[in-house]
Amino acid sequence: MKPSINTTLPITHCCPACGLLCDDLVLNSTSPVSIKNACVKSVSFFEKAFAESTSKPSVAGKPTELSNAIQAAANILSKASHPLFAGLGTEVQGMRSIMRLAEKTSATLDHMHSEGTVRNTLAMQNSGWQTTTLTEIKNRADVILAIGTDIVSSYPRFFEKLVLNTDTLFNKPKPEVIYLGLAEETIKLPEIMNALNALMNAKNPLNKKPDNDMIGGVRIASLKLILEKLKAAKYGVVVWSASALKFPQAELTVQSITQLISKLNETNRVAGLPLNSGDGDSSVNNTSTWLSGYPTRNRFVNGHPEYDAYHFSTKRQIANCDALLWVSTFNACLPPDCEAPTIVIGHPDMQFEKQPDVFIPVGIPGVDHIGTMFRMDSSVAMPLKKLRETELPSLSDVICQIEAKLS
Amino acid sequence: MITLLKNGRIYDPTSGKDGVVQDIYIKNGRIIAKPSATEKITQTYDLTGKVVMAGAIDMHSHIGGGKVNIARMMLPEYQETKKYTEPEAHVCTPSCSHNATPSATDTGFRYIEMGYTAAFEPALMPVNARQTHLEMADTPMIDKGGYAMLGNDDYFLRMLTAKKDQKAINDYVAWILNATQSIGIKVVNPGGINAFKFNQRRLDLDENNSHYQVTPREILKSLSTAVHQLGIAKPLHVHCNNLGAAGNFQTTLDTMSASDGAPMHLTHIQFHSYGTEGDKKFSSAAAQISEALNKNKHITADVGQILFGQTVTASGDNMMQQLNAKHANPKKSVIMDIECDAGCGVVPFRYKDQNYVNALQWAIGLEIFLSVEDPWRIFLTTDHPNGAPFTSYPHLIRLLMDKTFRNEAFAKLNLDAQAMSNLTSLDREYSLYDIAIMTRAGAANLIGLNDRGHLGVGAGADITIYTDQADREAMFAKPDYVFKDGELVVKDGKVVKVVWGATHTAKPAFDIAVEKDLKDYFDKYHTMQLDSFKINDDEISSDGRGSIIVHENKKASH
């Protein structure tokens, strides 16, 4: 099967390859892929999407008709009493259908990148936060403090679009960018964040220590300088990537970041920007929240939603579940090993080492079908276009058909 | 197929029917005149002794969009369904619900179970419109619509500073209504949300936004004129400056004159009716506000009643929410600046009957309800979820209809607050007819829903039927039947059929040339393309569930 482009090229397009959802891409050709306003992530995404794929639905590793694969998936879910729906690499429409199926099958829901999402959610549920969005940053930010992230690895065009832009509403200077805690081995972010908060209080003894003393691998003088710059900023922005905080209780460090922002706001304007990890994590979290009342990680028990950010993780549920439904439509991310019967619905380019019980290749959102995605700042939802005709069904088509076959 | 609702007592203020016993015929989702004898009646409901009203319309309720979802996300503890054997506060009753942040599904179900057939999201942020519509699309059972927020967006403020003429403003406002699929325009803390981004912490009606050098009064004048000249039925929806601040009643009074006589709706006016008298420098200015409302016929208002218990305040007004965050209970809040478009502030609150300020807020809301003479110009809201969850409406209706019940509740309040309120001297009791005006006919009239909110021939058959009970809370909490577009969807207070309502919009014409400057603005300053900003009809209606109803403008007046 070779999907054919049904669109007249070039076409202006929205790219789901990272949380920025740049919609100024112009796709000029698909083989070789040529895109105006491209970045390394978008080129890789569209190259994989347009690679010729022969993948077919399969049951126990044997190619079969779609209807057989759907029936096999329905059989597995019908027998399961507590299935795990994980991966969840999808957008709003896909997640809507997954939520419906989860309600019917009493499933637990967890996204493949929820480790980071949950750290942010926990910090927000403990103390709240003060945040901002991309257009505000583009037009207002004069100081950007990036904590534990270089930003570009996750968002290749962040600087091009938001920092180096010359057109701004208020004729502000190009923002000064400060990186804090990039060298993970030597820098201890929890200590540093606590110290920054302590230094905000003039009476705290830390203020009397010699400037050359080190805290968490950073000189006190440097920390004081960071605070001075943030206090002097007209509109300071603090960026962090929760998924990069790979140490226990990292949510406490996120909270420490948000507390610092909150304190700074007593007198001047500073706002946070939590980064996401992609594969539809922001879309899935938002959709889950308005449909069930809870963000992920959540589950349904006899139609009632429940929430537990700790117990309902893939890591903990993979050993307990009696079926795994793994979804990854943007990228060919493979499921974790699971002893329970496994259904994989996802990217046509998936190559398995261990064949799942059922595999159903589906269309890629923003390539094979339309969709809606939340940007990393969660305030903007973007429409995704369809680029080509394909025989591949959409995730929601497949889920609806499985739902209809449940006994 | 014709359904006959027989012998019900009709309360239909649009046609002046006040308890008239009359039959209603329904065909194809509409109310029809009595059919000829040859036409077959398919089913008949004997409503002898029952009270029949049009489906209720909540003209101001935060049912979807960014800040509502943030509230859900921040407050998972609110999702538990609690059974109140002991009421949350003894002025509430066990049947008052305190789930302030229901999911989209629950929102639709709880509304229809109370006989409400439509609710309007009053703070749809243009850049967040897609999310708001996604959530409303997942809200079953009821019709919905949104008021798009303007007046703090940098595009509009630049226009004001550049002294663009009224026609250019009108084109932009009309374009926004089309692009965001909204039915009205709202302004929240005019200019204040924007000023907060420049570190201004308060903004008075005649104070300049420090960057744009324009005042809230100029913003109100410009937007109210645009809405009026475009012929949009729904008057400009105004959340005044100085929300919640002691002494803000003067701002509210002054705001009434800001439109030079063009219609304006002042929303959740209870939160804007505070004086500074007494030892605690916080007092009721309900008398002054009500008197002004009685006098100024171009002004309408909804109350935004508070009721005691746990809730969450979700507002576009991040300037004032930043100040309110110190009162957060539990102690957390989300404050956001959003896309050079607006902002939001989400702050959980627990209103307590023994707290002086909260008790007086409760009394102020009721004083306004009882002192505003014309029920067509005052609307029943709790500003869900800000004053209380919408599920508290039956309790609020009883407070309005039952003086004894009200005075008993008052007697349990903080004593200092009691001393500062004249509530017990207000003997008025709302009638069923009054309730039908403020929750049906008046609301439909205000928004411009010509075929809703009444029971006349041609109306959409959204109909609610109650058993007349002395306990008005019990009566309004659980209707016997609710019909949505002619279908029986609720029986004995429980949903028997799931339907998906329509989205009401207004789409005034505009000069397409407005997009030239907008495109340039988006390309230079935004982080999305102009085309992505606009919500297509297909996005709302293509799933086979949603549909769009476009309301004709009133005759444009120039």
Can you give keywords for this protein?
heterodimer; A: 407 residues; alpha/beta; Rossmann fold; Dimethylsulfoxide Reductase, domain 2; 32% helix; globular; B: alpha/beta; 10-stranded parallel sheet; 9-stranded mixed sheet; 19 helices; 24 strands
Question: Secondary-structure map with pairings?
Answer:
The complex is a heterodimer of chains A (about 400) and B (about 550).
Chain A: E1 4-5, E2 11-13, E3 25-30, E4 33-36, H1 40-50, E5 58-59, E6 62-63, H2 66-79, E7 84-89, H3 92-105, E8 108-111, H4 114-127, E9 128-131, H5 134-140, E10 143-147, H6 158-162, E11 176-180, H7 189-199, E12 214-215, E13 218-219, H8 220-232, E14 236-241, H9 250-264, E15 270-275, H10 281-292, E16 298-301, E17 304-307, H11 314-317, E18 324-328, E19 342-346, E20 358-361, E21 371-374, E22 381-384, E23 388-389, H12 395-405
Helix pairs in contact in A: 2-12, 3-10, 3-12, 4-9, 7-8, 7-9
Chain B: E1 2-12, E2 17-27, E3 30-32, E4 41-46, E5 50-54, E6 56-58, H1 66-74, H2 104-113, E7 116-124, H3 129-137, E8 143-149, H4 154-161, H5 166-180, E9 184-188, H6 192-197, H7 216-229, E10 236-239, H8 249-255, E11 264-266, E12 274-275, E13 283-284, H9 286-295, E14 299-302, E15 309-315, H10 318-324, E16 333-338, E17 342-351, H11 356-371, E18 378-379, H12 393-401, H13 403-410, H14 415-419, H15 432-447, E19 463-467, H16 472-477, E20 481-484, E21 487-491, E22 494-495, E23 503-506, H17 514-525, H18 530-533, H19 537-541, E24 548-551
Parallel strand pairs in B: 1-4, 1-5, 6-7, 7-8, 8-9, 8-23, 9-10, 10-11, 11-14, 14-18, 23-24
Antiparallel strand pairs in B: 1-2, 2-3, 5-19, 12-13, 15-17, 16-17, 19-20, 20-21, 21-22
Helix pairs in contact in B: 5-7, 9-11
Protein name (chain B): Formylmethanofuran dehydrogenase subunit A
GO molecular function (chain B): hydrolase activity, acting on carbon-nitrogen (but not peptide) bonds
Organism (chain B): Methylotenera versatilis (strain 301)
